[in-house]
# Entry
Amino acid sequence: MNAPGIVLNLVAWGAIFNLARRIYSKQDIKPIIWKLAIVIFVGLFSFSINLPYMDQQIKLAILPLGVWILYGIYSRKEEGISWDKYRKYAWLGFFANFIFLAVALINPLIHSAIFPANEISTYLSDINKGKIIQTHPSAGNRILDRDSLLFQLDNIKEEPVYSEKWYYEAFESGVELSKAEERFPYQLAGTEAKWGSGIDPMIFVEQDGKGILISTGQKQVYFRAEKTLLKKGE
# Structure
């Protein structure tokens, strides 16, 4: 998980803890603390639907399954006294789903502000151990030109991912796809994304050494440098 997500989740749990403490302080008959913690946890269980949101899936709680389970257990005890003690905590558990939903909605906005997806420095923060790996027979004997990469890093711009265009260019070349030159025959390994971003990208370098295709697992971004980032190997 990324750093903003961790902080937001801690804030969410802090809010749940404070709400539970307020309920507890107002009760005349105090419940057992470890039991109310379990009740809140079980109350989190719900029937949910998944909705797409900013390259991720978020869960929207619909039915309070955990509350129903707890009601079935506690309503039979001591003529409902136990259920009265724990009912609010069960519902707190269910409504905690919406606190975490708010976290899921806010986190990508904060993350994109701190770690812009259109800046290559988000994915290439530390290149000291960077190296080039040939991933296709069409790759030449090239190594990473660190000086060129460092010099151009601030000026490398994002461009659209021309996936269909690249495919048709390879298809219309008349060469069997298995024998055609790979557009991205090099992989840039050993680099690190910005600390706290939670991104573990796979980075591929174009045949001419100027194009960089980055795959995050959720999407692909393409950057283009003015000068090659590769040089002849020894």
Summary: Residues 81-114 form the longest helix (34 residues). Helices lie at 3-26, 33-43, 65-74, 81-114, 146-152, 163-171. The first strand starts at residue 47 and ends at 53. The mean pLDDT is 89.
